[in-house]
Design a protein that fits this description.
Length: 234
């Protein structure tokens, strides 16, 4: 098998680590994470479902899962779906691993680096959904190029999503919501089926919320919950 060359990070510009990990947390990073991590040094399987310890019918991806509240919630709700979670922030990954040590989820795999590397490794049309919730908005205009929603990453999403698959995006930052809508509108591979404001101001089904979202609400910001569908353009 051929290995993939390591390239510099393309889409992770924030802090890689916050406060120091405890010895127990570091033990989880060193001991548990390798068993759950997606290994990009070998080619992706022809069927992505083969990555999981139990049989699954489809695979979904969450980019930037934070502490993992939503990702664990969804993996528990849908045991027949495989989930891959990406989180390069070490403290968030440690929080997720602590939860999984207490309550393992055999349909969950993790990746602790730049999501663009994983997206480029995934097979074409291999995902049933991508979730991108409360990504860093990079509010300064000179940093807009760092926003994860951009033409190159939409190309990646279009390549790995099956026709009819969902790309879900949530944010409390109006300028990033408008930015995302403008990029989707200019991109033929996705449809936005919303027909009224209720469609994007109503949380997703069984939405558990996140700590970041709770803080946004306390500070008076309103969230938008956008859902786009991968168009079948063949």
């Amino acid at each position: 098998m051929t290995s993939h060359p390591v390239r510099s990070r393309e889409a992770f510009f924030g802090r890689h680590k916050g406060k120091s990990l405890t010895a127990w947390q570091q033990g989880l990073i060193d001991g548990l994470l390798p068993d759950l991590a997606v290994d990009l040094s070998t080619p992706a399987p022809a069927r992505l479902e083969a990555l999981f310890a139990r049989p699954v019918e489809a695979v979904r991806l969450e980019i930037g899962f934070g502490g993992g509240e939503h990702l664990r919630h969804e993996a528990a709700r849908f045991p027949d779906v495989g989930f891959i979670g990406v989180e390069p922030f070490v403290n968030g990954m440690a929080k997720m691993l602590a939860a999984l040590e207490a309550d393992p989820l055999p349909n969950l795999r993790l990746y602790a680096d730049d999501a663009t590397r994983l997206l480029d490794w995934l097979p074409e049309a291999s995902l049933a959904g991508i979730d991108l919730f409360y990504p860093d908005p990079w509010p300064k205009k000179r940093h807009f190029k760092r926003r994860f929603v951009n033409p190159r990453n939409l190309d990646r999403f279009a390549r790995v999503l099956r026709p009819g698959a969902r790309f879900r995006f949530a944010s409390d930052i109006d300028t990033y919501v408008n930015w995302t809508l403008a990029h989707i509108d200019a991109y033929e591979a996705f449809d936005w089926p919303a027909t009224s404001a209720r469609d994007w101001h109503t949380p997703y089904e069984a939405w558990p919320g996140t700590r970041y979202e709770a803080k946004a609400f306390r500070e008076g910001r309103r969230a938008a919950y956008l859902t786009f569908l991968r168009r079948d353009v063949a």
